[in-house]
Amino acid sequence: MLPSSPREKMLRALIVLALWPLAVGSGTEPDAEPELFSETVFRRHIEYLASEELAGRAGKGGEKAAEFIRKHFETHRLEPLFGESYFQKVPGSSVNGNEVQPPGLNVGAILVGSDETLRDEIILIAAHYDHLGRGQTGYFPGADDNASGTSMLLEVSRALSRAKIRPKRSIAFVAFDQEERMLWGSRWFVGHAPRPLEQFKCVLVADMIGRSLGDLNLDTIFVLGSEHSPELTAALDAVKVPEGLHAARLGIDLIGVRSDYGPFWNEDIPFLFFSSGEHPDYHRQTDLPDKIDYPQVAKVSRLVHALTVELGDAEVAPTWQHDVLPSLEEVRTLARIVDLLLTQERAAPLTGSQLLLLNHVKGRTRQILERGTMDAGERSWLMRVSQLMIFSVL
Q1: Distances in Å between the alpha carbon of 34 and those of 28, 41, 291, 303?
Q2: Quick one: which H or E segment has residue 80?
Q3: Cα–Cα dist 262/271, whole Å
Q4: Taking a C-beta distance cutoff of 8 angstroms, is the pair 81, 157 a contact?
Q5: Cβ(374)–Cβ(326) under 8 Å?
Q6: 3-class SS of residue 93
Q7: In the chain, which residue ranges form alpha helices assigned H by DSSP?
Q8: How far is Cα 177 from Cα 225, in angstroms, rounded to an integer?
Q9: Cα–Cα distance between 229 and 325 in angstroms, integer?
Q10: Average pLDDT over residues 316-345
Q11: Are 228 and 321 in contact (CB under 8 A)?
Q12: Which of 114, 172, 178, 115 is nearest to 146 (CA)?
């Protein structure tokens, strides 16, 4: 190409300046926001959060992740949750001068509800953003654990901030730090809540939503906790699950405390826990962005968004019930997992003891389903065998 004269260069510059406002307003510029719940936005978030720059989101990398989340909340005009700050400092601790618990930062924002009476009631959406930092051979990316859940938090907050009509109740968004250290971030939040704890009517927590339990071909998100709240059960019944996603409801006591819903559970605050389960890359340096099922993350995020809107506008806020009735849905889910474990090829073949366990579970779940009822004793068996499978097979 021939070099341009100074006059031609000036003319081109004037043309660009004249057209620039139109280009920006058209939404076609490279920096335009992607479509809501598109795979592009989830990939962008997860690849950054799991990048070498953030080095496993602990220490300085964790501070960068916290600032990234804060900037997202601020950009989408969500109000700070902690007074005038988006940050809640989580103190560390030391013994004999040796750091036992490093300090951290919870990051939170709030979308104030549209109803003058119900806006004091809060629906909390949460995910932890921290991970394991660096090891001797490199850093732990934590793409699924829990960049996937954090990406959901960011996208649901963006969607709700752009909605023409706000939910009647207020919606809070919190990215917890220190989940990998005995849930210290969420424990501190519950003990030092920015609003009276009774205003938090329920919490929806996502942790590891981008893979599949044991790398099985499940297309399933496990939803745990609804058995403790009839209103949460009704909300799950009311919303449409995205096509291609199976939402399998399980009792939370089948797995116990495994994520940031734990401190809320202790306070009898209704909760739902969303997870696709552990896989072979859990807490390994192989938990990479290119292994994430991005369509699944998008579908789970749409489900959480729909539930948030449903709960935000419901006539009655979720309530807590201690007594739990046995559910055949749990038996169906366990039976499906067992069938897949027995039929799908695995990198490591099943051992004799594993085959014995799985065939025992297969036979007993079939008996329960054929009968169509489950008693309290069988529910106790279901809880024990599920935990045994998690630790010995999956």
Answers
A1: 10, 6, 22, 19
A2: strand 79-80
A3: 9
A4: no
A5: yes
A6: strand
A7: 6-26, 39-49, 60-75, 149-162, 184-191, 230-238, 262-266, 294-313, 328-343, 352-371, 376-392
A8: 22
A9: 11
A10: 91
A11: yes
A12: 178
DSSP label at residue 282: T
User: What is this structure's pTM?
Assistant: 0.89
Query: Which residues, 6 or more positions from 151, have their beta carbon under 8 angstroms from its beta carbon?
Result: 41, 42, 45, 46, 49, 297, 301
Q: How far apart are CA 132 and CA 139, in angstroms?
A: 8
**Angle, helices 39-49/149-162, rounded to nearest 10 degrees:** 130
**Each residue of 210-264: pLDDT tens digit?**
999 999 989 999 999 999 999 999 999 999 999 999 999 999 999 999 999 999 9
From the number of C-beta atoms within 10 Å of its C-beta (0-12, 13-18, 19+), residue 247 rates as middle
Torsion angle defined by CA atoms of residues 321, 323, 327 and 331, in that order, rounded to the nearest 10 degrees = 110
Tokens of 308: 């948030």
Say how far residue 303 (Cα) sits from the centre of its chain: 11
Distances (CA, A) of 98 to 58, 94, 182: 18, 5, 18
Whole-number Å distance between alpha carbons of 201 and 118: 11
Least confident of 18-27, 149-158, 163-172, 202-211: 18-27
| Closest among 270, 277, 274, 276 to 233, alpha carbons compared | 270
> For residue 205, what are its two tokens?
């927590």
| Inter-CA distances, 81 with 86, 106, 109, 152, Å | 6, 10, 4, 19
Kindly report the average pLDDT of the chain as a whole number: 91
Q: Are 78 and 161 in contact (CB under 8 A)?
A: yes
Give the residue, 104 or 13, on which the prediction is more confident.
104
SS3 61: helix
Q: To 10 degrees, what angle do helices 376-392 and 328-343 make? A: 30
How far is Cα of residue 32 from the mean position of the Cα atoms in its chain? 25
